[in-house]
């Protein structure tokens, strides 16, 4: 961890530097919240902060970076991402007539030889001493990203942000006694206010009102939105607008801009505030309580089956 800069807005900070800033971000903080959205668990947050649980696969992160770049900073894409083709290592392959012929391997490549030939990770194909390229896309991913971007750009709200504001903008502020940080997909400031834009991917089958509504709840997007709104408000002294761009990832490509409901923002604020104060108490005392701290109730908690399961059998066995 490195010292976090003073409260403010910071542009053009490499992700690796931002990640090292000693401050809390909302994705980390949410590791302290359990499934039902009401159970605070500092032991789990500690396990995340210590690197014991919850790391996204490098493929997921890489795809996310590439998609964000293509949607928000398309002019940088060709500088930052290599489109890797299929592995060109020649292999002996049996032909229908039983003869053998040398053909390119054809697996999706992840590496490149010193002279620029794409290679997969198979033994003998992977170039000696090669490190996996950090920023690459396969031709299939490139096509997926292109179609996702096309669907998103049909919306005037998305087109309107292309040439304005900054991408991957970092914000630092003190909230409820804790140094907090955020990295905003897009941050636009103008004379009439400020906008935060958060890009999310979703299974296209779930990109309908109910589906997005459930996605907000199950991924705590409302808590993140409230945190982003408040950290920007803490720095600017005025409340920004907030927009999600939900992008379907996969066949049936579609996208939609959504604004959060005020009630969800209020509840989201309540949740992150509680998490911050639990975190403050944990760091001050050195105690990181789990979901059910010993001695917090006067005996074991009485717990029933879910309401739907109980009502199903009510007519048979009574209340
Ligand atoms: Zn290969």
Can you tell me about this structure?
This protein is α+β, with helices and mostly antiparallel strands. The protein folds into two domains: 216 residues, Alpha-Beta Complex (Lambda Exonuclease, Chain A); 48 residues, no CATH class. The chain is built from eleven helices and twelve strands. The strands form four sheets. It has a six-stranded mixed sheet with strand order 1-8-9-10-11-12. The protein has a two-stranded parallel sheet with strand order 2-7. Strands 3-4 form a two-stranded antiparallel sheet. Strand 9 and strand 10 form a beta hairpin. It is globular. 29% of the residues are buried. The chain binds zinc ion. Zinc ion binds next to loops.
Short key terms for the protein model shown above:
binds zinc ion; two-stranded parallel sheet; 2 domains; alpha+beta; globular
In percent, how much strand structure appears in the residues? 15-25%
Q: What general outline do the C-alpha atoms trace?
A: globular
What pattern of helices and strands is seen along the backbone? EHHHHHEEEEEEHHEEEHHEEHH
Bound chemical compounds:
zinc ion
Mean pLDDT: 91
Secondary structure category: alpha+beta
The count of domains is: 2
Overall CATH class of the largest domain: Alpha Beta
The end-to-end distance, rounded to whole angstroms, is 56 Å
Unreliable spans are: none
Please count the beta strands (DSSP E, at least 2 residues each).
12
Enter the CATH topology name of the largest domain.
Lambda Exonuclease, Chain A
The amount of helix comes to: 25-40%
Sheet of most strands: 6 strands, mixed
Please compute the radius of gyration using only Cα atoms. 24 Å
Could you give the order of strands across the largest sheet?
1-8-9-10-11-12
Structure annotation, total helices: 11
* Level-2 CATH architecture of the largest domain: Alpha-Beta Complex
């Amino acid at each position: 961890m490195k010292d976090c800069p003073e409260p403010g807005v910071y542009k053009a900070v490499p992700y690796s530097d931002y990640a090292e800033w000693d401050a809390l971000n909302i994705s980390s903080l949410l590791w302290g919240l359990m499934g039902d959205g009401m159970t605070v668990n500092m032991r789990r947050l500690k396990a995340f902060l210590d690197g014991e649980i919850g790391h996204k696969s490098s493929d997921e992160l890489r795809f996310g970076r590439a998609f964000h770049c293509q949607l928000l900073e398309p002019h940088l894409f060709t500088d930052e991402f290599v489109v890797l083709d299929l592995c060109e290592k020649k292999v002996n392959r049996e032909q229908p007539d039983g003869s053998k012929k040398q053909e390119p391997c054809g697996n999706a490549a992840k590496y490149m030889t010193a002279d620029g030939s794409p290679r997969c990770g198979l033994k003998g194909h992977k170039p000696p001493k090669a490190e996996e390229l950090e920023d690459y896309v396969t031709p299939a991913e490139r096509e997926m990203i292109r179609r996702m971007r096309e669907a998103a750009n049909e919306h005037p709200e998305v087109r309107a942000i292309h040439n304005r504001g900054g991408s991957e903008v970092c914000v630092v502020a003190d909230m409820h006694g804790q140094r907090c940080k955020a990295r905003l997909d897009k941050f636009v400031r103008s004379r009439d206010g400020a906008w935060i834009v958060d890009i999310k991917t979703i299974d296209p089958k779930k990109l309908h009102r109910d589906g997005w509504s459930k996605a907000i709840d199950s991924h705590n997007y409302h808590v993140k939105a409230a945190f982003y709104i408040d950290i920007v408000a803490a720095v600017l002294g005025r409340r920004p607008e907030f927009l999600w761009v939900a992008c379907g990832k996969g066949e049936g490509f579609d996208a939609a801009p959504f604004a959060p409901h005020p009630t969800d923002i209020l509840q989201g604020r309540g949740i992150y505030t509680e998490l911050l104060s639990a975190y403050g108490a944990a760091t001050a005392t050195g105690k990181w309580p789990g979901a059910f701290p010993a001695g917090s109730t006067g005996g074991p908690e009485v717990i029933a089956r879910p309401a739907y399961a109980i009502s199903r059998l009510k007519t048979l066995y009574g209340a």
